Amino acid sequence: MASGTLASLFEGRPNLSMTQRAMYVAGGLGLAAAGAKPRPNLLLNVLAIVAGSYLAWSGYEGRCPVKAALFDGQNTPRLPAA
């Protein structure tokens, strides 16, 4: 059951609006560019580049698994079962 839920988060139709997609791409590219600047801590640079690339790719695809996990198809929050 868990694998079916996980697969549904990464598949399906886009769940981001055009404004959200633009924000994801711009924010992701900005974060990746900031990570490309040389700093003393290499790990933080790599994490910033990876996170920025992921955000930009999610914006390009129009699908965000985090938003899919938190919201249903009608943009209402998913509440835990009581």
Describe the structure in your own words.
α2 packs antiparallel against α3. It contains four helices and no strands. It is 66% helix and 0% strand. The protein has 82 residues and is mostly helical. The longest helix is centred in the middle third of the chain and has 20 residues, at 42-61. The protein has one domain. The model has no long low-confidence stretch (mean pLDDT 83).
Fraction of residues in helix? 55-70%
N-to-C CA distance: 19 Å
- Roughly what is the average pLDDT, rounded to an integer? 83
Share of residues in strands = under 5%
* Count of separate DSSP helical elements: 4
What is the CA-atom radius of gyration, in angstroms? 15 Å
Count of the domains: 1
Q: How many strand segments?
A: 0
> Helix/strand/pairing class, anyone?
mainly alpha
- The 3D shape can be described as elongated
Brief synopsis:
With 82 residues, the chain is mostly helical. It has helices spanning 2-10, 18-36, 42-61, 65-70.
Task: Give the helix/strand layout.
Blueprint: H1 2-10, H2 18-36, H3 42-61, H4 65-70
Helix pairs in contact: 2-3
